[in-house]
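INFO  loader      accepted 1 record
INFO  loader      residues=95
INFO  predictor   begin
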Amino acid sequence: MSATDKAILGATIAYLINPVDIVPDWIPFLGMVDDIYLVALALLRLLLRTDEKVLAQYWDGPEELVPLLKQIADWAVAFLPPRVRRALLAKVENA
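INFO  predictor   done
INFO  writer      dumping tokens
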């Protein structure tokens, strides 16, 4: 895992445990959307940048969970407006 990937993972975890959000969690549905998208983008980046053999070697969870995680990340990103999705995915893939 690269230093950039570790930093993104750490920043994602810090954002999730930080009580200050872009959209406050007390707002129904919308309060969780920013958290879900951030986790989905971080997860998608890690899954796309990790070789499947390496992932299989170090993954302790059920094998069927990895494709499900990829599908969930793709699904979450698909709900973004196309312009935002392209911009964020470009940053995820190029970073």
